[in-house]
Each structure stands twice: as C-alpha cells, then as structure tokens.
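ok so for the tutorial part 2 we go from a plain amino acid sequence to predicted structure tokens. step 1 is just haveing the sequence, like this:
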Amino acid sequence: MSNLIAPPSVRALARKKGIDVEELARDTGRSSIAREDIKVARPAEDSASYWDVDHTAFGPVREEAMTRIAQVSAANLSAANRLIPQVTHHDRADATMLEAIRVQLKSDAQARGIKLTALAFQVKALGRALRKFPRFNASLSADGKRLFFKEYIHIGIAVDTPYGLMVPVLRDVDRKGIWEIAAELAALAGRAKERKVRPQEMGGASMSITSLGGIGGIGFTPIVNPPEVAILGISRNETVTVWEGNTPRPVAMVPLDLSYDHRVIDGADAARFLAYLCGLIANPRRILL
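step 2 — the prediction. this is what the tokens look like for a chain of 289 residues:
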C-alpha cells in the first residue's frame, strides 16, 4: 500500500513487535496506522523481535556463532513445538534383570570388542513395541487426513556432539541381534561426534530415542521429531523402594518419558505402549529370544 500513512515512531514500534505495517493495513482496510493499532496487533508467529535486544546495554557480553547443525536443529525443534500438540507420559521400568544380564555378558562383550550398554537393550525393546503398536510407527500426512503405517522399524538415536544435536538412524532393529545393535550404536555415535555420518544414515526413523542416562536427571519432556509421532526419553537409573507386603525392597528403575503427537495417539494408547515397553525392559529375555 504505497499511500500508507505511518509515522516513523509507529514503524519502529511495529518492527520491534515483529509486525508488518503494510500487511496490517491490508488486513484492516486502513490507509493509516497509529500506535494504538500496533499495540493491539498480534506479531507474526515466527517473529524474532523478542530476541532482538542490545545485551551490551546491560553489561559485557561474549558473542559466539551458532553452528550450522545447531541452527538447523533449533529451527526444527521450534517448528515441532509450535505445530504438534504434544503430551508426555511418564513411567519407569525395573532394570534389575537387564543390569544382571549385562554383567553376565561383560566378558563376552570384551572378547567381541563391543561395549554392551543398556541402550542396546532399550533400542531392541522399542523395536518390539513398535511392531506390536503400529500406530506409533506411523506418520501423519501434511494435510492431517491420512496415516502412513511403516513396515520397517528404524530408530533415531539422538547424539550430543560438540557441533550440536544429531539424530542418525539405526535401520531394521527388529531384524538385528543385541550384539549387532550394540556395535552399530557405538559406530553411529562415534561418526556423529566426528561429523562423519553419511547422508543415508539420517532420516526415515520410525521413532527416536534421546537418552540422558549417562548424565543425570529423573525425567524430562523430549520434543517429537517430525514426521515421527513419538519420541522416547530415557534418564539415569534410580533406586526406588518397592513394597512387597510389609517388606521394603530397593529396586533399580529406569525413568522413561514418552512424548507423542496427540493428533495421532491418545493417552490410553500411550500408557499401554509404555507399560508394554517397561515389561520388555524388566524382562529382557523376551527380546533376546
């Protein structure tokens, strides 16, 4: 609108709030825009005006450029958090038997030159759960009218690297044994940290796992990685007191946090899915057969 009347102070306020005065004039049918119009107008969804601050006005600062990987990750996470109605369901699984089996297999793992982590068992268990609950192994169409059910089971593994978060994908986990999964997990993480992940190792996951087990925490709320419809968060094992009648018993438990797209998955489905997964982790022999 070339004849739009808007004083410089009004235009400056619009820029600060992330509002396009030309677009506002078209939407309201106005030929002039005043400060009052800007104050009641809603900023654009992707406005960065909230972060457009001169921090040096408050004290000394140090500037560091975001890596390209971190920038891409930030954009994806922001879009996912804005577009997906996400809910997180929390549970925990008895890790006693899993840890006992890992101890039993320690010498075998050393002989194979493989680090057998709890994550290998958790990946295998998640693959089994996805096969039983196919709705979690689906993706919603862009128009939200169709579901694509995947016949394959690929698991994305979030890796913390010096350059930002990367999520390489472990393919066909349902067809692989625990040793193969453990070896591939270590190889994927190593290549990710060295920025050597191949293009064919990214994308196409059925679902992703983000594990903070080696760091700490008792739980968190992971963000779904579209076009997936769910993501599993894993925290560090904790000792929980379980009562058997009047007798207390300390039990090693692993906290699990399942975030899901509520457009596709209902709360009852999420509870059943995580309960089944907890059962597999509590009795890992079921996934080793």
